[in-house]
Amino acid sequence: MKKITVLVVDDSSVIRNIVKDALKDEVDIEVVGEAEDPIVARDLIKRLNPDVLTLDVEMPKMDGITFLVNLMRLRPMPVIMLSTLTTKGADITLEALEIGAVDFIAKPSVAELLATKNSFKETLVTKIKQAATIEQRNFKLSNVMASNLQNKILPFKGLKRLDHLIAIGASTGGTEAIKKILINLPANSPAIVITQHIPKSFSGRFADRLNSCCQITVQEAQHGQKIKVGHAYIAPGDMHLKVVRRGSGLFCTLEDSAEVSRHKPSVDVLFDSLIPFAENVQAILLTGMGRDGAQGMLGLKESGARTLIQDKASSLIWGMPGKAYALNAHCEQISLANIASSIIDFALLNKADMRKKNDEY
Question: Known catalytic residues?
Answer without folding.
Answer: 171, 197, 292
